[in-house]
Structures are given as C-alpha cells and as structure tokens.
Design a protein that fits this description.
Layout: E1 2-4, E2 9-15, H1 22-34, H2 42-67, E3 75-83, E4 86-92, E5 96-101, E6 104-107, H3 114-120, E7 151-156, E8 162-166, H4 168-171, H5 176-185, H6 188-201, E9 210-214
Antiparallel strand pairs: 1-2, 2-3, 3-4, 4-7, 5-6, 5-8, 8-9
C-alpha cells in the first residue's frame, strides 16, 4: 500500500497467490512508486508511473527466469492519481477502484479475471461471480507477460468524492452495499481501517489492503 498525498498518488498491490514470491512482487511495485520524484505532476507524473511499472514488470520477469522457465513472480496493482480536477486510475489484475459520490458507490475499474470475462460474455450473472469456482484466476498481472498492459480510466472529480483502492481480499469479503455503508458512516481517516477490519471479520480469503481518499477542490 502506498499513500503519497503530497503528489496525488496512491496505490495498492497484491502478490499473486500460488505463484513464487508474490510478496516480493508487490513490494517491488510499491518501492518503485515510492521513489518517484516528488516534483513531478500532471501528465509527466502519469508517464513516470507507467514507466516505473513497466520497469518492475521486466525486473519480475528476469527474476522469475532465474528460478526456472515456468516460474512466475507477479502482483496485481491499482494506482490512483489526482491530476488537477481529474482522477486517473491505472490497474492490472483484480484490485479495484471505487468511488462514493452522493452516497452512491460505483466500481470504476474492471476486474481483469476469468470470471469477469464470463460475466461480460453473458455466460454467468454478475451475482454468480463472487462464488464462482474459478474466481481466483486473474488474466493480467505485473510480471505475467513480457509487455505490461495497463487499463486506464479517467473521470472528472467532484468535491466530496470519496475514492477507495482495495485488493480482492476486501472486495471478495464485503458486498458493494457493505462497502458503501462503511464509507458513508465512517470518517475518511478511519474508513480504510474499518473496511479492513470488517473484511477480516467476514473471513477474507486473501491479503487485504485499502486506501481511502476524499477529493476536495
């Protein structure tokens, strides 16, 4: 988890379960983003984030090759940048980006997963996704392929918007309605801790990380 409010940069990363050294992969991502020059802003900052993530991708590929031809060292990532009055989210994998606006919660990222592909093709209903037996299959990760492909979404931010970045340990344990209720009822400074606490109480089956940010013009 990374919080660099001074430059408008936040991130979560979750090492891929079942793969070698997922903890190493997520730590390398956060370390690379933490080292970004604090004087950067705007489009230059965005490009630097992408460059850093591409560099980590190559580092993880090289590290895995040292272990063996079938080895993978991978991690999800979700990055939020506030670029003036615009929010920009970059992600790979199934860590998520939510926005609470006027008490309504919306997931702004799209899971890069096998189950989400099934939902998109109409083969299963959205409410079946959470309990699907193949729900752990992620289709894109930092370190999974020689070329990193990040999804990107930009939105106009409004004063009072509350943003949530979280790993799938949280989103898999709590429903959107539960997440929304906690975010509505809890001060922003305490919301991440309460979300994590509740997801653990609900038996979260994976690592849980969360960052909550409120946008003020």
């Amino acid at each position: 988890m990374l919080e660099r409010a001074e430059i408008g940069l936040w991130a979560v990363a979750d090492g891929a379960g079942g793969h070698e050294r997922g903890d190493y992969a997520s730590a390398r991502i956060i370390a690379a983003l933490r080292q970004i020059d604090p004087t950067l802003c705007g489009a230059v900052l965005l490009e630097e984030v992408k460059t850093r993530l591409r560099e980590v991708n190559l580092q993880l590929r090289a590290k895995a090759a040292e272990i063996g031809p079938q080895a993978l060292i991978c991690s999800t990532v979700a990055v939020l940048l506030m670029l003036g009055e615009e929010s920009c989210c970059l992600w790979a994998g199934d860590s998520r980006f939510y926005r609470l606006r006027a008490s309504a919660l919306q997931q702004l990222s799209r899971d890069q997963s096998h189950v989400q592909n099934l939902v998109d093709r109409g083969e299963i209903a959205p409410e079946e996704a959470a309990e699907h037996p193949l729900g752990n299959i992620v289709t894109n990760l930092v370190g999974a392929h020689d070329e990193l492909v990040l999804e990107e979404r930009r939105d106009r931010a409004e004063p009072g918007d509350i943003m949530l970045l979280c790993t799938d340990g949280l989103s898999g344990a709590l429903t959107d309605a539960e997440i929304a209720e906690i975010m509505r009822e809890t001060p922003v400074t305490a919301a991440a801790d309460r979300l994590i606490e509740n997801s653990l109480m609900q038996g979260a089956r994976d690592n849980v990380s969360a960052v909550v940010i409120e946008y003020a013009a």
